Structures are given as structure tokens and as C-alpha cells.
Amino acid sequence: MWTYLNTPFLLVRPGVESEEVAPWQEAGETWRRLKVRFPSDIATHSTEQTLYFDHRGLLRRHDYDVEISGGTPAAHYVSDLREFSGIVFPTKRRIFPRQPDGHFAPEPLVVSIDLDEFVLS
Fold first, then answer.
1. Distance from C-alpha of 81 to C-alpha of 105, rounded to nearest angstrom
2. How many domains does the chain have?
3. Which domain holds residue 108?
4. Would you say residue 24 lies in a domain?
5. SS3 of 61-72
6. Distance between CA 64 and CA 48 in Å, rounded?
7. Which residues pair with 48 in a beta bridge?
8. Residue 34 belongs to a domain
9. 49 with 42: CB under 8 angstroms?
């Protein structure tokens, strides 16, 4: 959860590398994509991940391969954005299998996370 809640802020940490890659079309929208490589001192699902941002610059999707599960490809969607102490957080997270063509498989729903309150200090 630490990386989920700190993205995109953790992208400015020393050692994190990123590059913009080709945009992605989904749900009638064009999302900008950022390929990210994390250093070994950040505990995360996989070293390389892809983040998808909408026209407002807000995170919509987060792809990774779950290395501890044999590289299982995941498409992690975020939604229901709410503001807490001036910072916008997604309060719903849904993770689905990612197909070889990059699209998600609608079933099974692998993980469902709902958050309803953030306290920032």
C-alpha cells in the first residue's frame, strides 16, 4: 500500500527512472503513459511499471508484473478521486489480470480496495 498511496510523489525519489512512452487508448480516452524503473531500495511489485494519466494529469491505471507470483501481469485501476488536506487520492482500486495485448481481462477481479478516510499529518 505504501507505493500505491505515495504514487506519483515517490517518482521524484533518487534512483527512480522514468520515460514517457506511446499514449494508450481506453474507454474513449487517450492516456499518457510513463514507464518507471524503481531502484532496489523501494519495495514494490516489480522493478518496471507503467503509469497511465488522463488529460488532467491524474493517475487512472497502474500496470506491473507481480514478481513474487512468477511475474503475473496486473492492470490496476484507480477511481473515485477525493481530496484530503488539499491532496487528491483515489479511494477505489481494482486489479485485474493484464492480457498480452495490454488490455485487462474483466474477470477475475483479483484485488478490490476501498478507502474512505485519509488523515495526513
1. 23
2. 1
3. 2-114
4. yes
5. EEEEEEHHHCCE
6. 7
7. 37
8. yes
9. no
